[in-house]
Amino acid sequence: MESIRRLFGRFGITEIGVCPFSAFENELLHCRAKSRVPQGAKSILVFLMSYLQPSYTGPRNLAKYAVAPDYHRVAARLAAEVLPALEALYPEEQFALFADNSPIPEVRAACAAGLGVLGVNGLVINPVYGS
Ligand code: B12
């Protein structure tokens, strides 16, 4: 886990955890991305990214989370860099990266991975990022 932490740290990601895939394999959401889950998946690696953009000083009265770059694109760019690095670190293993479109109940997986608790708002409450 330490080497994975270091790897994600290179991309500015510090909130990362892992939980067993078996905890969720019987309750996967039905979506197209289900077919991308590697056969015999063992672990779910969960990482958090914050919507908060402290540099936004624009004139408009917009919710901060609405001015952040589209996280699907951010995650796709990240995938292009992180996946090869993970594969190089663990050449025997297979990885697939999902952002939002995963069949895994992500909020509960994040809680199971030790990244926070499930808030009454239905979201992960993380000690660093909050809700
Ligand atoms: C389907 C889905 C949606 C659908 C919900 C459609 C519906 N109501 O049926 C749509 C596309 C509308 C949506 C929108 C958003 N979503 Co959404 N969504 C999901 C997804 C893919 C599956 C959730 C699900 O169906 N679970 C299964 C059911 C049985 O469990 P459930 O607890 O009843 O699920 C409900 C809630 O999750 C709720 N919901 C979904 N998203 C959000 C976001 C917020 C803020 C809230 C309060 C509730 C909520 O809708 C689900 C169905 O009723 C998850 C990712 C994942 N794979 O888990 C993300 C996820 C829950 N969504 C998330 C986010 C961030 C959003 C948005 C804020 C994105 C945005 N920037 O606009 C919006 C806000 C929606 C809102 N204010 O209600 C995050 C929450 C992160 C966190 N901190 O916990 C997740 C985990 C994705 C992610 N990894 O970023 N979402």
Given as residue ranges, the uncertain stretches (5+ residues, pLDDT < 50) are none
Mean pLDDT: 90
SS summary, helix count = 4
- What is the radius of gyration? 16 Å
Beta-strand residue fraction: 5-15%
Number of strands: 4
Strand order of the largest sheet: 1-2
| Percent in helix | 25-40%
| Structural class by helix and strand composition | alpha+beta
Run of helices and strands:
HEEHHHEE
Give an overview in words.
This protein has helices at 2-9, 64-67, 71-89, 106-112, and strands at residues 16-20, 43-47, 117-118, 124-125. Helices cover 29% and strands 11% of the residues. The chain is an alpha+beta fold. The mean pLDDT is 90. The two termini are 25 Å apart. α1 packs across α3. It has one domain (2-125). The strands form two sheets. Strands 1-2 form a two-stranded antiparallel ribbon. It is globular. It has four helices and four strands; from the N terminus they run αββαααββ. β3 and β4 form a beta hairpin. The structure holds cobalamin (B12). The site of cobalamin (B12) has 11 residues, from α4.
